[in-house]
Design a protein that fits this description.
Elements lengths: L1 H10 L8 H15 L2 H10 L5 H23 L5 E3 L3 H12 L4 H20 L2 H8 L2 H22 L3 E3 L4 E3 L5 H18 L5 H16 L31 H28 L12 H18 L4 E3 L3 H6 L5 H14 L3 H4 L4 H16 L10 H17 L2 H18 L8 H15 L4
Antiparallel strand pairs: 1-4, 2-3
């Protein structure tokens, strides 16, 4: 009784028409649908040279910090962890394509978190969000979806670099078999509305990989203390913080995280009927502050940008309405920390299948893009096209912004473009022209 009284006082359950049991089950459901990140994020960041186990622990700690704030400060039922697309940008663009160190990338994430803290305090994040064209916002999501699906296919060898660009890879080896097996399970379970479809796909295909000898049982116990975060803890590099490259990377992190978080909050809150009569989320500023704090601490702890997960909608669908749902999800993350030996044997084809499936989820917004007006359609198309072709989220955003500003200006629709977009377009053009001087 006293326990229920604590939860009622902390989360105002009756006011939100919910109870302890519903909230806890909603939190577990959210964990089931987003826990794939504990396998995928360490795998992606380890390709940047970071320690797999340390990233695993750092991701859990940063996620828990952000969700505790979401629970007790914002009192909202949203789960947070390392954002998909943002972790891909960290490894495949900043480290692999630009040739920067993972310490440089972590520093950009840290600065992003600090900036977001300031922007959240003064309500600037919402103002920036409103100044960017709707079609470009949706195109970024679609482009990232294609980009991370491409990463998944490349990582498992389904497609490979070819004479022209890309070509079909080996489909009939063990990796190909595990990949398609995992992918089919994920898609079928998703179609059948099974909670945690991606996690089940990862786990079942891991068992298959053990049977085929692709991976092996851990030498240690299944349950163990989490790996140390020492290899990645506070490994920040401030030697290049005033460089143009740092600005470019920092802005890309800011841009993607901004729209990803605000879009997710709006979408999930709409499903939960949590928006007010003006269509706003009453505690949006507190939710944004939660992920800003998570991102700042995440960089210190050794992981990429922390953001609100769209998979939170699964918990909301189960009746989650308060911060107790977020607290329950955080508790599940803490428990998962002690099962690292299981996560460490998950094969790359299984996480690649998860990337492709998440890519599918992200490109569904393409149906909402206005393709009837070419001045809107072409910038959106360039944003979507250039991300997978240049292997860079940042380049897709750059081409989208530049083409939007230029086309609107020269078609007599310049007044439709906000000063923010013009300013960003100029910055991106200067970035491309600088090598000429």
């Amino acid at each position: 009784m006293a326990e229920n009284s604590f939860f009622e006082k902390a989360f105002k359950l009756k006011k939100h028409g919910t109870d302890v049991k519903t909230e806890i089950m909603a939190g577990i459901t959210t964990f089931m649908t987003m826990s794939y990140i504990l396998a995928v994020n360490p795998q992606i960041l380890s390709e940047a040279g970071m320690d797999y186990g340390a990233v695993f622990t750092g991701t859990i700690l940063a996620s828990v910090i952000a969700m505790l704030l979401m629970a007790f400060y914002a009192n909202l039922p949203f789960g947070l962890s390392a954002g998909m697309g943002l972790n891909a940008f960290f490894t495949y663009t900043v480290v692999m394509q630009m040739g920067k160190s993972w310490q440089f990338a972590l520093t950009a994430v840290f600065l992003e978190g600090i900036l977001f803290l300031l922007l959240s305090f003064f309500g600037v994040r919402e103002a920036i969000f409103n100044s960017i064209p709707v079609n470009l916002k949706k195109a970024v999501s679609v482009g990232i979806g294609l980009f991370i699906a491409e990463i998944g296919l490349l990582n498992t060898g389904i497609i490979t670099p070819g004479d022209i660009s890309l070509s079909l890879g080996e489909l009939t080896n063990a990796n190909g078999f595990i990949f398609f097996f995992a992918l089919i399970i994920m898609v079928v379970l998703t179609a059948r509305n099974v909670k945690g479809a991606l996690l089940w796909g990862i786990l079942v295909s891991t068992v298959l990989s053990l049977i085929l000898g692709v991976t092996h049982f851990p030498d240690s116990h299944v349950v163990s203390l989490p790996p140390s975060i020492k290899p990645v803890f506070f490994k920040l590099d401030f030697s290049n913080i005033f460089s143009l490259e740092m600005f470019s990377v920092l802005f890309s992190f800011l841009f993607v995280d901004l729209f990803d978080t605000l879009g997710t909050l709006t979408g999930v809150a709409t499903k939960a009927n949590m928006l007010d009569e003006d269509g706003n989320l009453p505690e949006a500023s507190k939710a944004l502050l939660s992920d800003a704090v998570g991102t700042t601490f995440g960089a210190i702890l050794g992981t990429s940008t922390i953001t609100t997960f769209v998979e939170s909608s699964s918990g909301v669908a189960e009746g989650g309405r308060t911060g107790l749902t977020a607290l329950s999800t955080a508790a599940c993350f803490v428990i998962a920390a002690f099962f690292f030996p299981i996560f460490s044997i998950i094969p790359a084809p299984a996480t690649a299948a998860a990337l492709v499936t998440v890519g599918l989820f992200m490109i569904t917004t393409v149906a909402e893009i206005d393709f009837t007006d070419i001045s809107e359609a072409f910038p959106a198309f360039m944003t979507i096209l250039m991300m997978p072709l240049t292997y860079s989220i940042a380049e897709g955003i750059s081409f989208g912004m530049i083409s939007y500003a230029v086309i609107k200006l020269f078609t007599g629709k310049g007044k439709e473009v906000s000063p923010v977009v013009y300013g960003l377009a100029i910055v991106f053009i200067i970035r491309y022209l600088l090598p000429l001087f």
